Amino acid sequence: MASFYPTEPFNSYAATDHIEEEDLPEALRSMSLSMRVLCFFAFGRPDLQDHWKSLQSEQAFEIVRGRFCSNVLANTITAAGVLLATSSVFITTGSPTIYLDYTLPAPYFLLFMSLMLAMIAMLTSGLSMIRWLHTDRQWTREQLKPGGYFVVSYLLSIVTPVFFVAWSMHCFIFAMLIAGLFSQSMICRTVTALWLVTYTANIGTISMEFMRKYTTSIKSR
After folding, report:
1. pLDDT of residue 54
2. 61: which of 2, 45, 137, 155 fits an S-S bond (Cβ 3.0–4.6 Å)?
3. pTM value surpassing 0.85
4. CA atoms in the 13 A half-sphere facing the CB of 87
């Protein structure tokens, strides 16, 4: 799974305007574990240090906004649209073969959940894009300074759409896995078992890489 935060750190955004440069406010320095995890999902770092630097310059902020809108949110909307269309087809049509019956209660429920989550992902992505396109740098900086609810809302506007897309995709995958494992065909069950092993290995690899990067980021602070 591709990472959904920009691969370049925010302090790499070259900006010539340093007139309004300020240190990270005290309220944003000490954060809870859940907030640090949210920051890591959103920005690739367990703090707001680099993102705060991008708010000191109009040029840097425009780069950040452009990357989130064109790379993160636009791709999230596209993925949600594909999942929405695919789940709709599976829900509204019967299985074309008796060897993979996805109309069983469990797969059908998961397909329906995938459809609903994809719809929510498209809605939240659209709302987040509107928010980012119309947000003001100075206002955002002033709202972030005290910390609190606005910081949580700010981070969730980035990560929530991606989470909904991820859960929608996993619901679809589990629906197909259950349908395959309960198939009457030995070949279909074997292929599904191999798919399950591959899926589990990939999830484990991604989780370990995430933990490694998170631990490295914590130690480098």
Report:
1. 85
2. 137
3. no
4. 28
